[in-house]
Write a structure and sequence with these properties.
- This protein has 7 helices and 5 strands, in the order βαβαβαβαβααα.
- By secondary structure, it is of the alpha/beta class.
- It has a domain of 120 residues: HUPs (Rossmann fold), CATH 3.40.50.620.
- The strands form 2 sheets. It has a 3-stranded parallel sheet with strand order 1-2-3, sandwiched between helices. A two-stranded parallel sheet has the order 4-5.
- Helix 1 links the parallel strand 1 and strand 2.
- Helix 2 packs antiparallel against helix 6.
- The longest helix is centred in the middle third of the chain and has 17 residues.
């Protein structure tokens, strides 16, 4: 049985990877699908192509995981691919309330089931939006994202060492 793990992955975090690695042990195959919405164009830090490349790097060691993208309703993607299982990660009770509504809606719209996998406790506080904000201040995020995400964030915002040098009082000309 194969499953689909949808999301924006802007960027993928260690929490996402935790859920994905565990799902890849449960299911014969998992397709990580970057869902893109034309109305949200410009609201993402990374372009669709950048997110797909980061995901490919992060999942290179998971042989039964493939990367894809789709614009539209998830249930349409599921029908097109003939998949019936959606994997969603949960960090907290507040995630559950939102995800439960979406799961019921997806079940109503298409013949799909949603399987929830709780993120490991050590990743329960990590979200892509928090990672983006921390990285925007050139702070180190390597402990909460895979290496490919950390490198991509460093390219977007500058190296975390610059922040450390700034805090240490090293003049910009010497950095």
């Amino acid at each position: 049985m194969k499953a689909v793990f949808p999301g924006s992955f802007d960027p993928i975090t260690n929490g996402h990877m935790d859920v994905l690695e565990r799902a890849s042990r449960i299911f014969d195959g998992v397709t990580v699908t970057v869902m893109h919405n034309a109305r949200k164009q410009g609201h993402h830090l990374f372009s669709l192509e950048e997110r797909l490349e980061i995901l490919r790097e992060c999942t290179a060691g998971l042989p039964n995981v493939e990367i894809d993208s789709f614009g539209g309703l998830l249930v349409d993607y599921m029908a097109e691919r003939q998949h019936s299982i959606i994997v969603r990660g949960l960090r907290a009770v507040s995630d559950y309330e939102y995800e439960l509504q979406i799961a019921h809606l997806n079940r109503q719209l298409g013949d799909v089931e949603t399987v929830f996998i709780m993120a490991a406790t050590r990743w329960s506080f990590v979200s892509s939006s928090m990672v983006r904000e921390i990285a925007s201040y050139q702070a180190e995020v390597a402990d909460v994202v895979p290496a490919a995400s950390a490198q991509a964030l460093a390219r977007k915002f500058g190296q975390p060492q610059r922040r450390a040098q700034r805090l240490a009082g090293i003049p910009a000309a010497e950095r």
